[in-house]
Amino acid sequence: MRKKWFLSLLVVLLIPMLSGCNVLVLNPQGPHAETQANVIKISIITMAFILLVVYSLFIFMLTKYRASKQDPNYKPPHIEGSKVLETIWIMIPVLIVAFLSILTVRSTSDVEATPKSMQDEKPLIIYASSSNWKWHFSYPEENIETVNYVNIPAKRPVEFKLYSFNTMTSFWVPQLAGQKYAMANMVNTLHMAADHPGSYFGRNANFNGKGFANMDFEVQAMTAKEYDKWVSEVKSTAKPITKPEFDKLLKDSHVGLKTYTGTHLEFDPAPTSHQHSGGQDEPEDMEGHEGHDMSKMEHDKK
Amino acid sequence: MKEYFSRFAIENADDPMIIGAQISIALVTIGIIVGLTYFKKWGYLWRTWLTTVDHKKIGIMYILAALLMLFRGGVDALLMRAQTAIPDNGLLDAQHYNEIFTTHGVIMILFMAMPFIIGLMNVVVPLQIGARDVAFPRLNAVSFWLFFIGAMLFNISFVIGGSPDAGWTAYFPLAGNDYSHTVGMNYYAIAIQIAGIGTLMTGINFITTIMKMRAPGMTLMKMPMFTWSILITNLIIVFAFPVLTIALALMTMDRLFGTHFFSIDNGGMDMLWANLFWIWGHPEVYIVILPAFGIFSEIITTFAQRNLYGYKSMVFSMVAISALSFVVWTHHFYTMGHGVVVNGFFSITTMAIAVPTGVKIFNWLLTLWKGKIHFTVPMLYAMGFIPIFVIGGVTGVMLAMASADYQYHNTMFLVAHFHYVLIPGTVFGVLAGFTFWWPKIFGFSLSERIGKWAFWFIAISFNVTFFPLFISGLSGQARRMYTYSENAGFTIYNMISFVGALGLAFGFLLIVYNIYWSTRYAKRHLTEDPWNGRSLEWATHSPVPEYNFAIIPQVDSTEAFWDQKEHGKELFKGNIEPIHMPNNSGQPFIMSAIFFVFGFAMVFSMWIVAIISAIGIFACMWYRSFENDHGHYIPVEEIEATERKSGVIANED
Amino acid sequence: MKIDHSVPKEYATEENRLKIFGFWIFIGAEVALFGTLFATYLTLVGHTATGPTGSEIFEIGPVLIETFVLLTSSFLIGLSVHAMRLGNKKAMLTFLGLTLLLGLTFLGVEIYEFTTYVHEGAGLQTSAFTAALLTLLGTHGAHVTLGLFWGLAIIIQVSKRGITPETANKSFIFSLYWHFLDVIWIFIFSFVYLKGLM
Fold first, then answer.
1. Is C127–A278 a contact, with Cβ atoms under 8 angstroms apart?
2. DSSP reduced 3-state for B52
3. Do A243 and A265 share a domain, yes or no?
């Protein structure tokens, strides 16, 4: 039984260690990921305290009231309960839950908006759309498109507009922000920013079939100058994305890294954000990427 | 013709595992048929088991099925851990891995945990409330056989047609026809649907039984805590399972009839599936945990030799947990883009469940206070439960915080959390209950020595298996990934986890060995009260006679049997009278067999067979309506003879 | 089997009381079932894609007939149970038979309604809205259909065996079922048709 108590101690000790290892979530490189990492650390400490209380009581009870340590004729008393104790162990958890609730609502509100430290910057909008099993990144401002990798300027808020051409996916870059689902028929916004230039790992976190495990991508944050230089390089060297080319991209399962000028949004716009009215928008939206056609193609390719 | 039969084929039919499974299934089936014929046991099988309406026998069958499913789900788990133990492993390809984790999840929750719990409730609850059977014994049998053929239908997918592969959560559009084009997800929708009907009937049966058939003097607040947990669990079942019924029906319609409930075109809404599934799914996990809490209450009181501390709040906390369980479902998909208000609301309701759960933990700890603790095998499971489950609980609170969940969601952190509540909670609970009530049912105890070895292997290996996954999740390992690359940095955690899984497997094998060894060598009929129990089930013989109690007991406290032993309070007053018992019936089995045909036909879109078998099911119901079966009476002489043979407990004067 | 003569026959034995209680719980489950169907419908009501909306296909005429017929049938089965309690087998069977007849009429109108929808391009596969609509209505209709067969079985049993605690219990439970279907219809009338036509 002592082994379990030791385990919780381990958890508490692990926190500083984990930041050093490759534990991406606790090694944030952007303001939102940092907010989340702080929330996680606070909750670990709070939970460790609860474990400490429970484990102490537990060990005390087991060591003190073991039958082997007692008189064989001892008859345990009938103890109905205690309103005082019950009140205490209801009120304290309620307070803890209240504290964590406030923390949650505040931090959730923070990460669902432009980072506070970058409020006066204009966010860069990038559309991240998923198809089986790749990510398409459309940069409407720069009018370029990349597949399976995305470059962003560091120290600038980025708004990823997420949607899917078919299966539900989850866009996740652990060191920069939490994840959000990309779905057909609606667009989700994920706010993200990188504190420094660097390479950050990203992946789809929602299982969506055979190619799921390899559906990762690299996010490279660059200085503003490097970013602009890269954009002009793309504009001068890459081929424009055409509808036939894009349709082929949608159909193929794994396409590697690709770069284009123009974006697919011109001939295949994103779903409108709120589809409560259901039908009217859909036929046009769905033309380029009707669920049926693509799936058959994908299954023929092994 | 070939085209017609090709629908039953598996995609990679030459896979050694599939061929192996097909051969084993064929051999085992033939073996069973040959064995039954050779030993002339068909009649016995039919009379004693296939047509029984006795809650005790039905309970045994549920538990036996659950143990078999534990084996299959466990093999799935071992394969998964073996595949992910090293990066870029080639043991299982993506398709296989996807099928395996899907079947692992469905089997463990729906075909292992549920039947194990329902089996224990069947065996124990009528005894604990001093009743002779459940309110609707015939319906009880229907419940079991529907579950059984649902499980069989699900299992056969591996060798005929292909297993489901979209995860046990079956999100759309992945689970729709466009992206899961084998019949695997048809099996999912239909097998679970059929088993679910059985569970719903159990809900109705046990609520009625507990509310209406308690022994005289047993008010609600004098019921044993396990019975309370079962009452509340069945209330959840009655309100949660119909949601699943509809969700699966809509899924079936999308897949088989081209409707657009969850598709991404024609107005369909893939998010709707997620919502419906989890509106059922979250109450479901409380369905599997509350009975475990009830079992632990029984075991802790028995082996600390103390009354349960805070009985009233133990009841109210379960009521609170069950009510809250219906208003937290969105925490399963915070990342779907609901925004701060919705996510904030559900974060708060989710965290709120920690409060009544904490109340229970403290009440159990205080039940140990001033007690006299004996570390029998059931008690070891209960004592393992408290510290390990609490880790699951606190990580649950961590996950409840939406902003943090944006990082944890769908990672191995989540997987570790739910295994940390399911295994130390549900699995330890049913293993403890199984060990605890085994002697009551079979008249001999399982070996304590082997049981203790099994416990320690399982308890320690469990932590080795799952604790590293918290860290690998935070390192970026998503769930359901069939492989990962070396530079991802997940290797060490997965390798440790695999070693733990081997230990877990060994522990479970020890349990199987324990059953074999004890059946062969344990001393029989030593006592009806091996654990110095406190509630009514220990006040009758072991094994329990068909009618449970010769005289219905009269109760006036929470621990009626204990009070009889300690304070001489008389339980059985009056004379033995003829006892009315229901007759056996072959209808539940036959109707369920037709249901199997119906389900199979639906899976493969064999409409004519489906329609004919559906008519057959209704024909069974029509026949039942006209049936004039009023059961039989057991005469007093027979009761007295049985009582004498078992050692008199009931008074005869 | 102990018969309590101070209560109506359907409650007179312990088994009878258990069955009635159990059926109320079943109705609780059915509330959850139809609740889910309603929630699905209300979520998908606007998802009409290229298909028609409710206001384009709903016709108040057939709906009013269905409502009148079903509500009347509920009244009639109330009369049937009352006659049963008075021990009047003939009246009981007559009212029960009329109930089922009206139920059959309801189904007839509903089938006409469905075939009209299909002809107008509102089929099961047209859109999420039509799927949800037809499934909600269809589930209710399937329950009515099952009720017709169940009621028929009871008529046969009562005419052959008379009003016994057993047959009284079955008839009473059937009446609970039938009333429940009526309540569901009231919700359908309000939240599907009226709301759709407004």
1. yes
2. coil
3. yes
